[in-house]
Design a protein that fits this description.
The complex is a heterodimer of chains A (350) and B (326). Chain A is built from 11 helices and 7 strands. Chain A has 350 residues and is α/β, with parallel strands linked by helices. Chain A has a single domain, classed as Thiamin diphosphate (ThDP)-binding fold, Pyr/PP domains (Rossmann fold). The N terminus of chain A is likely disordered. Chain B folds into 2 domains: 182 residues, Thiamin diphosphate (ThDP)-binding fold, Pyr/PP domains (Rossmann fold, 3-Layer(aba) Sandwich), CATH 3.40.50.970; 127 residues, 3-Layer(aba) Sandwich (Rossmann fold). In chain B, helix 10 links the parallel strand 13 and strand 14. The longest helix of chain B is centred in the first third of the chain and has 15 residues. The N and C termini of chain B lie far apart (43 Å). The chains are: A alpha/beta (350), B alpha/beta (326). At the A-B interface, loops of A face strand 14, helix 11 and helix 12 of B. Bound molecules: thiamine diphosphate and magnesium ion.
Chain lengths: 350, 326
């Protein structure tokens, strides 16, 4: 039997008591609420559809972690780029990708954001500078840093967000990359989506240095831990990191403490944690929190809130409809998008 | 005899060898407390304890290298990769270290180590999670490469691999772990490098290995009804290859189709075809045919998967082509 790991929600100010003093506007909270609710409902639906075997493959849900994407998007610019791992549904949703093309991708349809070729783990949306969706743990760390290399090379002031799990930080490529990123002062912001588990393995079972923000220190990368259940805290940390990167002062490492309410993927019996632990984190839910702030400040009427909820519901329903009515790719599409060269001589024998 | 799942056959092989030899141990991601991502190592932590069933961080290059070093120093590690796709990160240690140690040290250091895990396509997992590595690793002198297709072979070959004094790459499949088959109650070992004629026949030889063999069995059944008798050879090991078995069979049937789950270029099927034209040229009544995956990365959508994978219809076509019956 696994020893239960102790994942504690970080101590934040009590629910919504920051509201009145908040530096964030009504518009920001409403956007956070709406965006996070869309992520949540989209994924709840995706989870149901997966269980009904409407589509196959893996399905890793971001449920519980939404505040990270919400705060990152609000704290950055549309010209910045984003790259993450396979737990990638929420990032494009937060960046404004149409949920229809995302649902269609889950369904493997040709109208999907990756033409049905990538699936759940490989969402891409070039229009939103969302550069994937990567299935190999840690692969995005050097790659995303390379995207930042190009931004610097081209003398833009854009930054690049590279997200990874707490398990991914154990890949050797991280260390090689961190060293170059700081040595070359690249405009990259590393986000550890620290949900305390890599599949069934808790952070403390794989390291003696459980404070993951310390990983950046030996490379001289400014690093800190952030409350990932708070879009406010994420936003502020992101803004600070963006300022540093845009000034030309190089990378930042943010260890953002969060929690996935669901299993690692859809087939995880979750014996490695307790129901109490899950409940403790759910009590800090960022969507509930934003709604509380909105209500406390009387920024929206109940009817207006209902309107948002209905809009979200409709978006999700329409995304399913769109996906189900979209065609599967045709056989010849297997030979498209493999090479830029359009007349590549494939071996075809039968 | 008793009926077991593929994963149980593997577990029995590992557990028996660990009981027999204290220097054998298992390490990999989620192998201990989680009982294995695909439950191959279920219960092994309970029996052998955390000293010998070891959970690693997600650090394939690091733990593979640690295992190689341990094997140079008298231990016999079994390294489980969650799938072989992730072992690409560890390929440096498998190819540059383990495969070359004995030769580079002039015979002083050897690496009795087994690298094992799921290989090949496993449904809608996308391009990075669907690759077959038989030809990749078969290319490398210094390695032995095993590709079992059923629980019986899996157990006997894994025991041979663990006892072998050279580095062994052992390719399983997420899609085979639940397959059931009969194995003897007692201990048995299947030698590395010996092919197995899984079905005797007279008209055409089908050469294959690993889970795609199922396609050959199905095709052979259907062809039998049309009066075409297929001999099916399971290579079981793709380095070394039991060329003699293939050549002998083709001398009898005079026709051959190679069925392979992976891509066509520089594949096991190219190798077999070369060998047959070199050593059975006068016995061939038709060009050697092959059925492989399309020459494209494996895509997510079910329609593209159907297009990409070898299937019964394609194999039947190829068999008939060797008989000029199309
Ligand atoms: C190189 C590599 N090794 C192993 C895997 C299998 N795998 C997929 S997700 C995962 C756990 C990752 O955990 P973490 O980085 O914490 O991300 P989270 O799932 O919590 O978001 C593992 C081991 C993989 N995809 N790639
Ligand atoms: Mg994690």
């Amino acid at each position: 039997m696994a020893t239960k790991a102790v994942a504690k929600p970080s101590k934040t100010t009590k629910k919504s008591s920051v509201a009145s003093k908040s530096k964030f506007s009504k518009e920001t909270y409403v956007k956070w609420y709406k965006d996070m609710l869309l992520m949540r409902r989209f994924e709840e639906k995706a989870g149901q559809l997966y269980i009904q075997q409407k589509f196959g493959g893996f399905c890793h849900l971001y449920i519980g972690q939404e505040a990270i994407v919400a705060g990152t998007v609000s704290g950055s610019r549309p010209t910045d780029s984003h790259m993450t791992a396979y737990r990638d549904h929420a990032h494009p949703l937060g960046l404004g990708t149409d949920p229809r093309v995302l649902m269609a991708e889950l369904y493997g349809r040709t109208t999907g954001c990756s033409k049905g070729k990538g699936g759940s783990m490989h969402f891409f949306d070039k229009d939103k500078n969302f550069m994937g969706g990567h299935g190999i743990v840690g692969a995005q760390i050097p790659m995303g840093t390379g995207v930042a290399f190009a931004e610097k090379y081209n003398e833009t002031d854009n930054v690049v967000f590279v997200s990874m799990g707490d398990g991914a930080v154990r890949q050797g490529a991280l260390h090689e990359t961190f060293n170059m990123a700081v040595n070359w002062k690249l405009p990259v912001i590393y986000i550890i989506e620290n949900n305390n588990y890599a599949m069934g393995t808790s952070v403390e079972r794989t390291t003696n240095v459980t404070d993951l923000s310390k990983i950046g220190l030996s490379y001289d990368i400014p690093s800190k831990s952030v409350n990932g259940m708070s879009p406010e805290a994420v936003h502020e940390a992101i803004e600070e990191a963006c300022d540093r990167a845009r000034r030309g002062d190089g990378p930042t490492l943010l260890d953002i403490r969060t929690y996935r309410y669901k299993g690692h993927s859809m087939s995880d019996p979750q014996k490695y944690r307790t129901k109490e632990e899950v409940a403790e984190w759910q009590a800090k839910d960022p969507i509930d929190h934003c709604l509380d702030v909105i209500k406390e400040n009387k920024w929206l009427t109940d009817a207006e809130i209902e309107e948002i909820n209905n809009w979200v519901k409709k978006e999700v329903e329409e995304s399913v409809e769109f996906a189900e009515n979209s065609p599967y790719p045709e056989a010849h599409e297997l030979y498209e998008d493999v090479y830029k060269q359009t007349d590549y001589p494939y071996i075809k024998e039968y | 005899m008793k009926t077991v799942q593929f994963r149980e056959a593997l577990r029995e092989a590992m557990s028996e060898e660990m009981r027999r030899d204290k220097s054998v141990f298992l390490l990999g991601e989620e192998v201990a407390e989680y009982n294995g991502a695909y439950k191959v190592s279920q219960g092994m932590l309970d029996e052998f304890g955390p000293k010998r069933v070891i959970d690693t961080p997600i650090a394939e290059l690091g733990f593979a290298g640690i295992a190689v070093g341990a094997s140079m120093n008298g231990l016999r590690p079994i390294v489980e990769f969650m799938t072989w796709n992730f072992a690409i990160l560890a390929a440096d240690q498998i190819i540059n270290s383990a495969a070359k140690m004995l030769q580079m040290s002039g015979g002083q250091y050897h690496c009795p180590i087994v690298f094992r895990g799921g290989n090949g396509t496993a449904g809608q997992l996308g391009a990075t999670h669907s690759q077959s590595f038989e030809a990749f690793y078969a290319h490398v002198p210094g390695l032995k490469v095993i590709t079992p297709s059923n629980p019986y072979d899996a157990k006997g070959l894994l025991k041979a691999a663990i006892r072998d004094n050279d580095p062994v790459v052992f390719l399983e499949s997420e899609k085979m772990y639940g397959d059931k088959g009969e194995i003897p109650e007692g201990e048995y070992i299947i030698p590395i490098g010996v092919a197995d004629i899984k079905r005797a026949g007279t008209d055409v030889t089908i050469v294959s290995f690993g889970k795609i063999l199922k396609v050959a069995f199905e095709a052979a059944e259907l062809l039998e009804k049309e009066g075409i008798s297929c001999e099916i050879i399971d290579l079981r090991t793709v380095r070394p290859i039991d060329y003699a078995c293939v050549v002998e069979s083709v001398k009898k049937t005079n026709r051959c189709v190679v069925l392979e789950e992976s891509w066509p270029l520089a594949s096991i099927s190219s190798e077999i075809s070369y060998h047959l034209q070199r050593y059975a040229f006068d016995h061939l009544d038709a060009p050697v045919m092959r059925v492989t995956q399309t020459d494209t990365p494996f895509a997510f959508s079910p329609t593209l998967i159907d297009e990409a994978l070898p299937n019964v219809a394609r194999l039947i076509n190829a068999v008939k082509a060797t008989l000029y019956r199309n």
